[in-house]
Amino acid sequence: MNNRNGLHIQIVIFALITSVLTALANLLVENIVGINVFSFGLWLIIPVGAVLIGMGGASGGFLACRYFNIMPSKLDAIALTLVAAFTMFLIYYMGYSTLVLDDGVLAKDVVDFGTYLDVVVTKAHMKVGRALNHDTGEVGSFGYWLLVIRFVGVLIGGFAIFASLKELPVCSDCDVYFKKIGVKENLQPNSDTAQTILDKIRSGTVEDYASAIESTGKGDCDVKIEFTLMRCPKCRSEMVTEEFFVKNKDKNFVAVKELNGKTLMPKDSIIPSLFAKK
């Protein structure tokens, strides 16, 4: 199941299922609420909605990899990206097959899909402003550029699912994903105290590592460190990942990925007990 080579059919099947569900959900939201998530964008050309739709369409591949412990290959990355693109096609085709004209006739009984797509792409109106209350009118031929931009968006969304899978910790001995057991949050007043914690993490001793987890500050702190205990479901080996965050000028924590790390724990160490709920 976890062979790293070739195309894994489980990934494709699960991704196709979520592709159909995502396209259907987009259609229902548009018909009920009047909002087309797929077409939503920032500053006209940033296809936020298309990226989200691409991620939703390919998300089944993520679930398949976790459930079957599959390490995705390059072929799987291509498959997930193509499924994301297929989701975009489904959105347009579902709109075409369910559109009812003013006289009660289904659009698909009057025009072909190509004609429908041309009308939808070129006759669409673009709304701008914070409340989306300013109508710029029909987009015309620019609609095809928007179509290309959204297509790139869904491809990015599909590939993002593959990229997120590659970031998941894997037991090198068993070739399965580590399972998350618990999280401990460590707060530090400033960068100097955070450096002390980082030195303890990298010292290589269990005692220092345990001290790093427990040495947390109180009150208004500028640095946050999240320790996550992971365990291999087969060999039961354990790992702790470290994620660093610092406050920006708006007082929100933002990730500092270059400081992140992961540390394998020796068997029967005291570290798992520090994650026990009290």
Describe the model.
The chain has helices at 9-33, 48-68, 74-98, 113-123, 142-166, 191-201, 206-214, 271-274, and strands at residues 125-128, 134-138, 170-171, 176-177, 179-188, 223-231, 238-247, 253-255, 261-265. It is α+β, with helices and mostly antiparallel strands and 278 residues long. The chain folds into two domains: 9-168, no CATH class; 176-274, no CATH class. Helix 1 (9-33) packs antiparallel against helix 2 and helix 2 (48-68) crosses helix 3 (74-98). The longest helix is centred in the first third of the chain and has 25 residues, at 9-33. The radius of gyration is 24 Å and the shape is elongated.
Q: Give the structural class.
A: alpha+beta
Oligomer: single chain
Q: Report the helical percentage.
A: 40-55%
Largest sheet: 5 strands, antiparallel
End-to-end distance: 38 Å
**Shape, please?**
elongated
Q: List the domain count as a whole number.
A: 2
What sequence of helices (H) and strands (E) makes up the elements? HHHHEEHEEEHHEEEEH
pLDDT averaged residue by residue: 86
Note poorly predicted spans: 128-134
Instruction: Tally the beta strands.
Output: 9
Radius of gyration of CA atoms, rounded to a whole number: 24 Å
Strand content: 15-25%
Number of helices: 8
